[in-house]
Amino acid sequence: DVKVTQSSRYLVKRTGEKVFLECVQDMDHENMFWYRQDPGLGLRLIYFSYDVKMKEKGDIPEGYSVSREKKERFSLILESASTNQTSMYLCASTPWRDSNEKLFFGSGTQLSVL
Amino acid sequence: EDKVVQSPLSLVVHEGDTVTLNCSYEVTNFRSLLWYKQEKKAPTFLFMLTSSGIEKKSGRLSSILDKKELFSILNITATQTGDSAVYLCAIPRAGSYQLTFGKGTKLSVIP
Questions:
Q1: Which of B41, B98, B104 sits opposite A58 (nearest CB)?
Q2: Which chain A residues are within 8 Å of B2, Cβ to Cβ?
């Protein structure tokens, strides 16, 4: 079974702190994604990556950056956390294959910024 | 812009009831439509419907796709409390592996 692991289930940070959310997948998938999920807004794409050192902005990239130095690891960085970044963050991956849009999700990180 | 609209947003039923969840969509170059179930944590994959596979079934869950009317339904028969979850519908964007998600339907099954 594909495993997508997010390093923390719950995280509490202070406004202005630099925050790293880590995601690791064990199935050699090329594509990795970061979503945030908020009540009433659903899942929204922050950033994604098709390959090592490649990154593309999603719908809501402001206030975030990402890093993909190794194929299995995709990190989301909040340079200076703000209270409006309190949310559930979900990482996902999928292989590069035609007609395979099925995403595999991690368990999520609930981030609270105080 | 791609759009996915799910209805209802929430639903409360009794165990044993049958429920139908709706998903309508607008997308350039339709490829597939996906259903996920989300309990407390990671969304888990249920079905993927494509032009060549417009009906899927797994146990008490089934889904159909109407490409002409641009919608899909997810049916759950003989509901159980374990079916309580948020059900998400998603479509891939044209030329991409990015998924556009609906806001989800929160299903609560009470004994």
A1: B98
A2: none
pLDDT for residue B15: 97
Question: For A4, which residue in chain B has the nearest alpha carbon?
Answer: B42
Tokens of B86: 């948020």
Using CB atoms, pick whichever of A43, A48, A102 lies closest to residue B48.
Answer: A102
Q: Which of B34, B41, B102 sits opposite A102 (nearest CB)?
A: B34
The predicted-structure confidence for B9-62, as pLDDT tens digits, reads as follows 999 999 999 999 999 999 888 888 999 999 988 899 999 998 777 889 999 999
Residues 6+ apart with CB under 8 A from A55: A47, A48, A49, A66, A68
b/e string for A23-36 if b means 16 or more Cβ within 10 A?
bbbeeebbbbbbbb
- Retrieve residue B93's tokens: 């964007």
Q: Are A55 and A47 spatial neighbours (Cβ–Cβ below 8 Å)?
A: yes
